[in-house]
Amino acid sequence: MTPAEFEQLYHRHGRRLFGLAWQLTTSGADAEDAVQETFLRALRALETYEERSRAGAWLDRILVNVVRERGRRRTFFRRSVEPDLKVLAPPEADGAAGPDERLEHSERLQAIQTGLAGIPPTFREVLVLRHFEERSTAEVASLLDLPEGTVRTRLKRARDMLVRAVSDGDGSPREEGS
Q1: Domain annotation for the chain: domains and CATH numbers
Q2: Percent of the chain clearing pLDDT 70 (strictly above)
Q3: 125 with 24: CB under 8 angstroms?
């Protein structure tokens, strides 16, 4: 791969990878570091990589591994996770929502952020990839090198922990039976 082709790969996937890294780490600086490390690893492994048409999925997998290795324990909420969380969109910006509604929405988002940060990484990464990155269960399973059944189980448990954390109002997720 020529330097120009690698630069094109970076321009095609860098911004999206940064968004994923930010969701997994909740820090702009940590996300930048993870993306840089991802592209360094990709550059080192280019000669052994065969499926050029699936470069996005390949880079995603490298990024997830980089974040896992760094042991990041937090994520960032950007989209709706579950309809029963009732956080589908911010209150209307046109002024239709009153101060009380905006405050309630802000508090709910904070509870979700806190809940996500407390979910164990093995559950959080499945939740982020499936709901925030809008990947299919099969894609998540392939990306994380897990059976689809394991992905579905982790996803259910992660949702349950998050819903309980938000419903309890303290933001701290708990396993079932706690």
Answers
A1: 3-70 (1.10.1740.10), 83-168 (1.10.10.10)
A2: 76
A3: yes
